TrEMBL record, chain A:
Family: Belongs to the SPTSS family. SPTSSB subfamily.
Entry protein name: Serine palmitoyltransferase small subunit B
Record's function text: Component of the serine palmitoyltransferase multisubunit enzyme (SPT) that catalyzes the initial and rate-limiting step in sphingolipid biosynthesis by condensing L-serine and activated acyl-CoA (most commonly palmitoyl-CoA) to form long-chain bases. The SPT complex is composed of SPTLC1, SPTLC2 or SPTLC3 and SPTSSA or SPTSSB. Within this complex, the heterodimer consisting of SPTLC1 and SPTLC2/SPTLC3 forms the catalytic core. Within the SPT complex, SPTSSB stimulates the catalytic activity and plays a role in substrate specificity.
Keywords recorded for this protein, A-Z: Endoplasmic reticulum, Lipid metabolism, Membrane, Sphingolipid metabolism, Transmembrane, Transmembrane helix
Membrane-topology descriptor: Multi-pass membrane protein
Gene: sptssb
One Pfam family from the record: SPT_ssu-like
Automatic annotation (TrEMBL), chain B:
Keywords tagged on the record: Acyltransferase, Endoplasmic reticulum, Lipid metabolism, Membrane, Pyridoxal phosphate, Sphingolipid metabolism, Transferase, Transmembrane, Transmembrane helix
Cofactor: pyridoxal 5'-phosphate
Superkingdom as given in the UniProt entry: Eukaryota
UniProt record, GO biological process: ceramide biosynthetic process; sphingosine biosynthetic process
Organism the protein comes from: Acipenser oxyrinchus oxyrinchus
Protein name: serine C-palmitoyltransferase
Gene3D superfamilies referenced in this protein's UniProt entry, alphabetically: Aspartate Aminotransferase, domain 1, Type I PLP-dependent aspartate aminotransferase-like (Major domain)
Domain Aminotransferase class I/classII large: 163-522
Membrane association type: Single-pass membrane protein
Length: 80, 554
């Protein structure tokens, strides 16, 4: 288990993130603010996805299957 | 082919004029390129006018790079607004110039983008510029070590110097920035004889005999009738263009011309029109419009049309398309002003600039201008051409009337370097340096392309811009290179387009193969560490000539 190699790789990935988002030039407290904000936004996006995407896909599938196969199952479609 | 050029070269004098032997028949690429420009090829496209293949490349980076660059700038801009807000509130001390309380109701002075950019981005990475140097700027130099305690607002010297940093930023193309006492004996003697200051202008008491000697030698070097030298390269452009053109004349200037050319053009009072960088179609369209429509309201013909171009553009590393421009100027009866600041001494078989590189006759170019700062290790500039032109400038140029003439040690240094390059001092050192530079250029560019970096510019240009794109990487690159004892110049927004920041390498004949290898291996490692290898061409299977023969104008 190459823990040291993995740690170095993660450090390198963090360095790339700093370079790409130009946080490399910011002072440490600005970097903390930026990381916090970004982390919060990503967490909110992930949470929203987790809560809403299954329900929305299920509803969308039912809507479209209701449209195409509607002649036979029009009564069943409204009962979900 | 190789032996004939070698014979001609060892003489130090190239006879370019009476070679009608192989001009009309040989359509194929002639490597030596010393034959006369022939009029039969006017109807052909690009390939016919150039005597050698013209390889320039300006690769585009993948799209994600551009997107991420904008993201980086966006983040820094947001934090810039945040910090400005803190400064305005008084929560943070402001280190920069501010308006006084009484002026708060007036038009704001420090709110434009340039000031914003300077305060909030440039200051954060400022330690990579203006580094004090404490030795000769040769192939290796010493830097003063300095640190900043408050994020680059103030610096203090630690007292140590960083020794033997490899110099990849100085314009020392032929390596004549040297302090070897043996080579500088004539310069020392001249200083003892004439002193250092001239204390007068050319037209009053500042015309020394060594100035006349220098001008004759420069004219002989370039193959023209006469030349005139000035004390400052920037002033050569900005003070002489107003003497040559004025109201009622038209200046067609390249997009990426140097500030001295732009300033000279604006000072002259002529109409200025800009054509796209190195783009012949754009220039031809402008010329046609100028000849057909004349001056804006009266439609009278223009008194003079002057095309301003440079030999090598120092930010891009591109070489001007001289044969096509000369053909255009002959067709439309315009004048050509060629600024060879970076190309004199650095390109061409014997270092005589882009005219020799393309195999053209120097009398085709109306005004040849150059500087002695880059390849000659001195200071000053020259303008060369026909005798009538130079005689006119001797009386009408602002520089000759008001500016102090060139200092004697500097004049003697240029004389010694010119004699060295022409072979008149009895050694072949000059021509060896020119060849060493060409070899260094070829090697360096080829290795960088193989590694997968995006390099701009012509294959034969000693200026190598390596694209970095993202603003975070600009600061990181310069700092990491300094840690490895290599000094580079990185360039960002005001001098380049905002998304195309780059590191600019200037090669020198004084760089040994060992130094170049050290730089290249460091670049290889750093390219992987900072992920700078954006080139989409695969390294092993590329056919370089095929890909680079097509020139992309951006």
């Amino acid at each position: 288990m190459d823990v040291k190699g993995l740690k170095e790789y993660l450090a390198w990935l963090y360095y790339q993130y700093l370079l790409v988002t130009c946080s490399y030039v910011l002072e440490p407290w600005e970097q903390s603010i930026f990381n916090t904000l970004l982390f919060t936004m990503v967490t909110m996006v992930v949470y929203t996805a987790y809560v809403f995407i299954p329900i929305h896909t299920r509803l969308a599938l039912e809507f479209f299957s209701g449209l195409f196969g509607g002649q036979h199952e029009s009564t069943v479609a409204f009962m979900s | 082919m190789a032996t004939s050029t070698a014979d001609k070269v060892s003489n130090g004098n190239i006879h370019r004029h009476n070679q009608n032997i192989n001009t009309f028949k040989s359509d194929a690429y002639v490597r030596s390129g010393f034959s006369n420009h022939c009029n039969k090829h006017n109807g052909k496209a690009n390939g016919g006018l150039d005597k050698r293949p013209f390889k320039e490349s300006f690769d585009q980076a993948p799209l994600y790079v551009a997107v991420l660059t904008y993201v980086g700038f966006g983040v820094v801009t947001l934090f810039g607004y945040f910090r400005d807000f803190l400064r305005a509130c008084g929560l943070e001390k402001c280190h920069l110039a501010q308006e006084r309380e009484e002026q708060k109701d007036f038009v704001p002075l420090y709110q434009d983008f340039e000031n914003f950019y300077t305060r909030n981005l440039y200051m954060r990475v400022r330690d990579n510029w203006n580094r004090p140097i404490c030795s000769l700027p040769g192939p290796q130099f010493d830097l003063v070590e300095r640190v900043s305690d408050d994020y680059n607002w103030t610096f203090r010297n630690t007292g140590k110097t960083i020794k033997n940093v490899i110099n990849m930023g100085s314009y020392n193309y032929l390596g004549f920035a040297e302090n070897n006492a043996n080579f500088l004996t004539t310069v020392a003697d001249t200083t003892r004889q004439y002193g250092v200051g001239v204390c007068s202008t050319r037209q009053e008491m500042g015309n020394l005999d060594i100035h006349n000697e220098l001008e004759d030698l420069v004219a002989k070097f370039l193959g023209v009738e006469d030349s005139m030298t000035f004390g400052m390269g920037f002033a050569t452009n900005s003070m002489n263009i107003p003497a040559l053109v004025g109201k009622g004349c038209l200046i067609l200037s390249d997009e990426l011309n140097h500030t001295s050319l732009v300033l000279g053009a604006r000072l002259s009072g002529s109409t200025i029109r800009v054509f796209k960088h190195n783009n012949i179609q754009s220039l031809e369209k402008l010329l046609r419009d100028a000849v057909v429509h004349g001056q804006p309201r009266t439609h009278r013909p223009w008194k003079k049309i002057l095309i301003l171009v440079e030999g090598i553009y120092s930010m891009e590393g591109s070489v001007v398309r001289l044969p096509e421009i000369v053909a255009l100027k002959k067709k439309y009866k315009a004048y050509l002003y060629l600024d060879e600041a970076h190309s004199i001494g650095a390109v061409g078989q014997t270092g005589r600039g882009v005219t020799e590189y393309f195999g053209l006759d120097p009398s085709d170019i109306d005004v040849m201008m150059g500087t002695f700062t880059k390849s000659f290790g001195a200071a000053g500039g020259y303008i060369a051409g026909k005798k009538e032109l130079v005689d006119f400038l001797r009386t009408h140029s602002h520089s000759s009337v008001y500016a102090t003439s060139m200092s004697p040690p500097v004049t003697k240094q240029i004389l010694r370097v010119l004699k060295c390059i022409m072979g008149q001092d009895g050694t072949t050192m000059g021509i060896q340096r020119v060849r060493q530079l060409a070899e260094n250029i070829r090697y360096f560019r080829q290795r960088l392309q193989e590694m997968g970096f995006i390099i701009y510019g012509n294959e034969d240009s000693p200026v190598v811009p390596l694209l970095l794109y993202m603003p975070g990487k600009v600061g990181a690159f310069a700092r990491e290179m300094l840690k490895k004892n290599i000094g580079v110049v990185v360039v960002g927004f005001p001098a380049t387009p905002i998304t195309e920041s780059r590191a600019r390498f200037c090669l020198s004949a004084a760089h040994t193969r060992g130094m170049l290898d050290k730089v290249l291996s460091t670049l290889d490692d750093l390219g992987d560490y900072l992920s700078l290898k954006y080139s989409r061409h695969s390294k092993s299977t590329q056919d370089r000539t095929l890909r680079r023969n097509s020139v992309v104008n951006h």
